[in-house]
Amino acid sequence: MYLYIEMWNVTTKWMKLSREKRKELMEDMHQRVKNMKASGVENLGWARNDELTPYRSDYRYMTVWKMPSIEEVKVLENNLARVGWYNYFSQANSRGELISQDEAIKFLIDIQENSTSFA
């Protein structure tokens, strides 16, 4: 299983699109996501970044995905590129294999300064 997190802000290019063009792009993306659900892709939700979040990122919008494999992650990334998403949104993504809290804590405790996973 993979987690995939998208964070983005709208760009001037998005703001210049007509409402109809915005709707068209969103409907195209929605259909692509709908097709992905058959392979086990799950969108856990969308949100606007709370203004009062401690250590808040500079991104206003976010969505979190749960994916069965890296292949499905790549399908999502390709779909985003195909609909032109990155032309209209300034975006940062994070992805990684889902691990337990215990595994994550152990990794952080055992990490070495000369590790390639450091920093």
Describe the structure.
The longest helix is centred in the N-terminal third of the chain and has 19 residues, at about 20-35. The chain has a single domain (about 1-110), classed as 2-Layer Sandwich (Alpha-Beta Plaits). The protein has a 4-stranded antiparallel sheet with strand order 2-3-1-4. The mean pLDDT is about 90. α2 (about 20-35) runs antiparallel to α3 (about 70-85). The protein has helices spanning about 10-15, 20-35, 70-85, 85-90, 100-110; strands at about 1-10, 40-50, 60-65, 90-95. It is built from 5 helices and 4 strands; from the N terminus they run βααββααβα. The two termini are about 25 Å apart. About 45% of the residues lie in helices and about 25% in strands. With about 120 residues, the chain is of the alpha+beta class. The radius of gyration is 17 Å and the shape is globular. The relative contact order is 0.25.
